[in-house]
Amino acid sequence: MAMNPEILVRVHDVGKSYRLGEIQIQALNGLSIDIQAGEFTALIGASGSGKSTLLNLIGCIDEPDRGAIVIDGQDVARLDEVQKSELRNRKIGFIFQSFNLIPVLTVEENIELPLLIQPEVSPVERARRVQAALQDVGIAEYKSHYPDRLSGGQRQRVAIARALVTDPKLILADEPTANLDSKTAHKIIDLLLELNKKKNVTFFFCSHDEKLIGRVGRVVHIADGVIKT
Ligand code: ADP
Ligand code: MG
Question: 111 C-alpha vs ligand 2 centroid, how far in Å?
């Protein structure tokens, strides 16, 4: 597939279904979307519309039944499992609704985790990057705390720092504000927008909440597994 160099993610005519006993659920139904490098895109759709399925496919966590997904010029279908996990670990960061922090690790240790599988990053460099990520999300003073001592907003900041620490090109955020009160949710969106500008990281953010997206540059709607224009 010909690639425009500015297109970081290309999803072309993707279909994905799940089997639930006798029933086949068509989660994505010939969905196409391009994401430009540096863009902040909000994907908005009701529960069950296919948001998480799409993010999981772009994140190389799952595979489509049909169609193509190209990330940073690499056709994901042509990659073997090792290449796919390399792509996932080095180019993509993930942020989830439920934060997914490890409770027995401190804030600092949680953020450090994705760097431990990058052997070329030395311990000194690791410490430097963790410190920088802590500063970027404004939680440096909590670095020695365990996640259960933090508020929801603080936990999500830790998860954002963990996504940032590998310096990925793309951050996928699956309803990162759904477990937060609306004031905290807006602060988290503001932080993501600021990081997008400051670090030129591409964000693909999904939510069911239309009210959150006042200042997001590009808003895309999804319904029944397709993009609605
Ligand atoms: P959203 O994130 O927008 O709520 P999802 O992508 O999770 O939507 O789900 C899209 C559709 O696929 C829904 O009908 C959902 O029930 C179904 N679905 C998602 N994951 C699975 C799964 N693992 N097994 C069966 N059905 C699933
Ligand atoms: Mg979902």
Answer: 24
Report, at the CATH architecture level, how domain 38-64+81-228 is classified. Answer: 3-Layer(aba) Sandwich (3.40)
Ligand 1 pocket test: pick from 16, 25, 57, 220 the residue with the most ligand atoms within 8 Å of its Cβ.
25
Cβ 102 vs Cβ 158: under 8 Å? no
**Gap from CA of 128 to ligand 2 centroid (Å):** 34
For 51-94, the pLDDT digits (tens) are 999 999 999 999 999 999 999 999 999 999 999 999 999 999 99
d(CA 53, CA 47): 11
Query: How far is the centre of ligand 2, averaged over its atoms, from the C-alpha of 50 (Å)?
Result: 7
> What is the per-residue DSSP string for 20-72?
ETTEEEEEEEEEEEEEETT-EEEEE--TTSSHHHHHHHHTTSS--SEEEEEET
Which atom of ligand 1 is nearest to 222's Cα? 3
State if residue 88 touches ligand 1 by the CB under 6 angstroms criterion. no
Determine the straight-line distance between the first and last CA of the chain, rounded to whole angstroms. Answer: 24
For the chain, the domains span: 38-64+81-228
Q: Which two tokens stand for residue 4?
A: 């425009």
Q: What is the pLDDT of residues 5-38, one digit of tens each?
A: 589 999 999 999 999 999 999 999 999 999 999 9
Residue 24 beta carbon below 6 angstroms from any ligand 1 atom? no
